[in-house]
């Protein structure tokens, strides 16, 4: 029984970490336009970045 609770606690602790790492990775890809990682993402968010004042060139 304790083994199941330990696994659930681990998964509950791991989820927020994965979300934060995923968001950070997405922000870097969107901001710096790593086309090899995700083609088209830089162009998709290009105008939005300029609207919020972030230069990208």
Q: Mind explaining what this structure looks like?
A:
The protein has helices spanning 2-32, 41-44, 46-51. It is mainly α. The protein has a domain at 20-57.
Characteristic terms for this protein:
57 residues; mainly alpha; 3 helices; elongated
- How many distinct beta strands? 0
The backbone outline, from C-alpha atoms, is elongated
Alpha-beta classification: mainly alpha
The major β-sheet equals:
none
The average pLDDT value, as a whole number, equals 78
Number of helices: 3
Strand content: under 5%
- Percentage of residues assigned to helices: over 70%
Instruction: Give the N-terminus to C-terminus distance in angstroms.
Output: 56 Å
Contiguous uncertain segments of 5+ residues: none
Order of helices and strands: HHH
- Give the C-alpha Rg: 17 Å
Helix-strand layout with pairing:
Elements: H1 2-32, H2 41-44, H3 46-51
Concise overview:
With 57 residues, this protein is mainly alpha-helical.
